[in-house]
Design goal:
alpha+beta; Phosphorylase Kinase, domain 1; five-stranded mixed β-sheet; three-stranded antiparallel β-sheet; 8 strands; about 40% helix
Length: about 250
């Protein structure tokens, strides 16, 4: 059995009455069997700690391996989905390009037929737009709490799009009149329209940023009309000044 002692001045040991709790206790004397048992306990504790660390490492590696496998699986699925989506996108783009080419070809043929029917030459190069009429018109507009009248011009422009085109198709195609052409200007400028303010004349003259346009021939209103007698869609628009000299090829 272990003994609790204190070291004496002569180098020996003396039991302390208070045992382990005695404040003078400095040494513990144990038998060899007790010491061997203590060493065994320490060794076992070290082994258990080492085994716990090894198990923890193995558990961490296992979890990481499982996580990596899941990530790889998810990544593979994502790559597959992205690849399939890219293929669908490429196919859709190819189809759209084909349809655009087909539509452009059909539109070109339609314009040529419309030009030939109206004896517009050269039928392949002619824009297909023809000025039908341009008339002075008194236009009433709201100015503050009052209404005023101004003399504007109303022009009817026949398009190359037959009434077999839907309203949406005709409206979409005629937008080409107001897009920059190869020379950097709008095709509609050929008849003298040099600006567009479609919120109306009354709004334009109140708009400080638009006052510089007052000396220009500005389109202030635009409508689409189906002329079933002639068989073509027409653009009817109001503008602030008379047209310029209409080119011969744009006359009926």
């Amino acid at each position: 059995m272990s003994e609790f002692v204190r070291k004496t001045a002569l180098g020996g040991y003396k039991l302390v009455p208070g045992g382990y709790s005695d404040p003078e206790m400095s040494h513990v004397i144990m038998t060899k069997a007790e010491y061997d048992g203590l060493l065994d306990q320490i060794q076992n504790a070290k082994k258990e700690a080492s085994a716990a660390v090894t198990q923890a490492d193995q558990r961490v590696r296992s979890i990481k391996s499982q996580a990596d496998a899941k990530i790889q699986k998810i990544q593979a699925a994502a790559d597959k989905a992205a690849g399939e989506l890219q293929e669908e996108l490429s196919a859709e783009r190819a189809e759209r390009k084909y349809q655009q080419g087909l539509n452009a070809n059909l539109l070109r043929i339609s314009k040529e037929r419309a030009n030939a029917s109206r004896k517009l030459k050269p039928k392949k190069e002619h824009s297909g737009y023809v000025v039908i009429s341009s008339t002075e018109k008194d236009h009433s507009y709201k100015y503050g709490a009052n209404r005023k009248t101004v003399r504007l011009w109303e022009t009817v422009l026949q398009t190359p799009f037959s009434i077999d085109f839907t309203e949406e198709q005709a409206r979409t195609e005629m937008a080409e009149l107001f897009r920059d052409d190869e020379s950097g200007g709008w095709p509609v400028e050929k008849i003298g329209i040099t600006g567009m303010y479609l919120d109306g004349y009354g709004e334009m003259i109140r708009d400080k940023d638009a006052t510089e346009w007052l000396h220009r021939n500005v389109m202030v209103e635009r409508k689409l009309r189906a002329n079933f007698r002639a068989g073509y869609w027409e653009i009817v628009f109001l503008h602030t000044k008379p047209l310029g000299i209409v080119p011969a090829e744009m006359r009926p």
